[in-house]
Amino acid sequence: MKKIASYAVVGLILSLALQGCETTQALKQNPKKSAEVRTQIAAEYIRSGDLDAAKRSLDEALQKDDRDATANMMMGVLLQQEGSPNNLVKADRYFKRAISLNSADAQVRNNYGRYLYQIGRYNDAEKQLQIAGSTLGYDQRAMALENLGQTYLRLGNTTNAEQAFLNALRVDQDSSVSMIELAEISYQRQQYNAAAQFYEGYVRVVGSKNQSAQALWVGIRIARANGDNMSMQVLVNQLRALYPDSQEYQRYLQLQYSTEAVWK
C-alpha cells in the first residue's frame, strides 16, 4: 500500500497570504475554520516531507478544535509516516478518534485501513477498507478497493482479492495496481491469455520503461508460459538492469534453468 491522500492547498495558502490580516482576524474568530485551514496546510507539509512543520500545524489545529475528524486523521497519517514504534502506537489513537467523530468519512476509513495493513492487522484492515470501498461517491474508492484486494491477498483469500481488484477496475479502468495483481492471479491459475491481457493493460497505463520489479517478474513468467522467448529475454534484461538486487531478479536466477510448468 503506497499512496496517501493529498490535499490541494497551494491556492488556499496563496489566498490567505493575499487576504492578510483580515483573514487572520476572521480565523481567530472562527476556531473550527482555523483548525480546518491549519489541517490543510499540514497536509501540504506532509506531501513535501516536512513532518516537523506538519506536526506544528496539526497541534495548532487540534488546539483550536480537538473534535475535528480530519485533523485527527491527518495526525494519524503523520505519525504513521514518521514510522517509529512509539509514533505508530500513537497513530492508532488518532485514527480511532477520527472515526468516532465522523464514522461516515470514507477517507478516514481508507487511511486507517492502510495503517492497519502496514502493522499487520489484516482482519481489522479488511473491515475498514470494505467500508471505504463500498462508499459510493468517494473520490478515492478505486484506491480503497485496491487496498482491500491487497489485504485479501495477505489473508490468503484470492477469490475475494480478485473481486476487489475487478471492482477497482470498474471504478477506474486505469488501475495499474489491480491490473498487475489480476495478471498474477490469472497466471497462478494457469490462465495465461487472461494474465497476458491484464499485464498488457498494466504496461499501457504505466509505460514499458516504468514497470516495477513485481510487474517485470509477472511479465517474464507470462512470456515464458506463452512460449514468447524473445519478449521474455527483453524483460529479463530490463529486470537485471533496473532491479539487480530485487527479490524478483534473485528468484529468476534461482529458476532460470527450472523446467517447472509454473514459476512461482
SSE blueprint and pairings:
Blueprint (H helix, E strand, L loop, with lengths): L9 H20 L1 H18 L2 H14 L4 H14 L2 H17 L4 H13 L3 H12 L7 H14 L3 H14 L4 H13 L3 H15 L6 H13 L3 H14 L4 H9 L9
Characterization of the model:
By secondary structure, the protein is mainly α. It has a domain at 174-258: Tetratricopeptide repeat domain (Serine Threonine Protein Phosphatase 5, Tetratricopeptide repeat, Alpha Horseshoe), CATH 1.25.40. It contains 14 helices and no strands. It has helices spanning 10-29, 31-48, 51-64, 69-82, 85-101, 106-118, 122-133, 141-154, 158-171, 176-188, 192-206, 213-225, 229-242, 247-255. The two termini are 22 Å apart. The relative contact order is 0.06.
